């Protein structure tokens, strides 16, 4: 069942076309929805794409969360609609309170742009239902503030409820418990720092992103 | 009343501060010895209209909590003083 995906674009988003390309290559359809829109139209899935929403001013995602479209995304998520936030999109979803925790600056103090290996930790999420637990996928990262952090209580909750979706095999940024991606309590909202849309063609060095996005579609 | 507000945003203990660490590492090369614990934050200044100082503080605290800081990784401190505004 191919879905129609709303790809959210804020001023400063720069991965929206990669997401559209990846979705269409998997047989889905996609449209870009600008941040000032109050409706997601006929979409039955949402991707909050990566980049530097509102210039990352104040903090990544801090201003984007107040964009009109985020109200619609919140309503969509509350109704159980599938939402994936990639990189800056993950930061936006944490700021919006749709996912727990926060992304702080990388522990190594460096911007990391490289291929990373992720272990799929649960198949009970909208991005991993077609994968298998323990499977290692190669998905590139491209971030400075990707060091996932949260309170001890939140971490215990994420572990206890099987909501850690991906862990890094070789932690590149200091994330607590090697976390690369998490999901909401309803399991329909997933955020991750790596970019599955950039791993959808052999020319890009990996096609592992296709099985993740296929779950979503 | 009008108040001048300054919000100082700092990273909570244990949160990575690459700017602070880089500045601290550069200090010996510049001949500054005995400086440690460098932390880089933000100062956000603005004016607030409110009935009194307590009301102004309450508004700024709300603003800090909901927008200016991310409580997961940041702390803030607020300075308020009556603004020196000309009489209309």
Write the SSE topology.
The complex is a heterodimer of chains A (217) and B (88).
Chain A (H helix, E strand, L loop, with lengths): L3 E6 L6 H10 L3 E6 L10 E4 L19 H11 L4 E4 L1 H8 L6 E3 L7 E9 L15 E8 L3 E3 L2 H9 L3 E5 L10 E5 L5 E4 L16 H8 L1
Parallel strand pairs in A: 1-2, 1-3, 3-4, 4-11
Antiparallel strand pairs in A: 5-8, 6-7, 6-9, 9-10, 10-11
Chain B lengths: L1 E10 L6 H9 L15 E8 L3 H16 L5 E9 L6
Antiparallel strand pairs in B: 1-2, 1-3
Report on the architecture of this protein.
- The complex is a heterodimer of chains A (217) and B (88).
- Chain A has 217 residues and is an alpha/beta fold.
- Chain A has helices spanning 16-25, 68-78, 88-95, 152-160, 209-216; strands at residues 4-9, 29-34, 45-48, 83-86, 102-104, 112-120, 136-143, 147-149, 164-168, 179-183, 189-192.
- In chain A, strands 2-1-3-4-11-10-9-6-7 form a nine-stranded mixed β-sheet, with helices on both faces. In chain A, strands 5-8 form a two-stranded antiparallel ribbon.
- Chain A is globular.
- Chain B has one domain (2-82): Phosphoribosylformylglycinamidine synthase subunit PurS (Mth169, Chain: A), CATH 3.30.1280.10.
- Chain B has helices at 18-26, 53-68; strands spanning 2-11, 42-49, 74-82.
- The interface between A and B is medium-sized, with 18 and 13 residues.
């Amino acid at each position: 069942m191919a879905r129609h995906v709303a790809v959210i674009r804020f001023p400063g988003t720069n991965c929206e076309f990669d997401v559209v390309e990846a979705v269409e290559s998997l047989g889905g359809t996609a449209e870009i929805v600008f941040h000032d829109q109050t409706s997601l139209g006929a979409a039955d899935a949402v991707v909050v794409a990566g980049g530097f929403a509102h210039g990352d001013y104040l903090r990544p995602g801090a201003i984007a969360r107040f964009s009109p479209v985020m109200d619609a995304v919140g309503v969509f998520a509350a109704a159980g609609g599938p939402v994936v936030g990639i990189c800056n999109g993950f930061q936006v979803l944490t700021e919006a309170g749709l996912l727990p925790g926060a992304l702080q600056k990388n522990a190594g103090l460096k911007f990391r742009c490289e291929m990373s290996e992720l272990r799929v930790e649960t198949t009970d999420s909208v991005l991993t239902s077609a994968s298998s637990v323990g499977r290692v996928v190669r998905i590139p990262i491209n971030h400075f503030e990707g060091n996932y952090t949260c309170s001890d209580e939140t971490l215990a909750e994420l572990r206890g409820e099987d909501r850690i979706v991906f862990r890094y095999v070789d932690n590149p940024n200091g994330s607590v418990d090697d976390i690369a991606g998490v999901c909401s309590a309803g399991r329909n909202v997933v955020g991750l720092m790596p970019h599955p849309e950039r791993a959808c063609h052999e020319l890009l060095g990996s096609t592992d992103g296709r099985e993740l996005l296929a779950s979503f579609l | 009343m009008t108040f001048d507000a300054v919000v100082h945003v700092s990273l909570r203990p244990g949160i990575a501060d690459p700017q602070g660490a880089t500045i601290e590492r550069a200090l010996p090369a510049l001949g500054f010895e005995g400086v440690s614990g460098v932390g880089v934050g933000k100062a956000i200044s603005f004016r607030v209209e409110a009935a009194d100082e307590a009301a102004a503080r309450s508004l700024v605290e709300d603003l800090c909590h909901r927008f200016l800081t991310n409580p997961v990784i940041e702390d803030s401190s607020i300075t308020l003083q009556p603004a020196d505004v000309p009489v209309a």
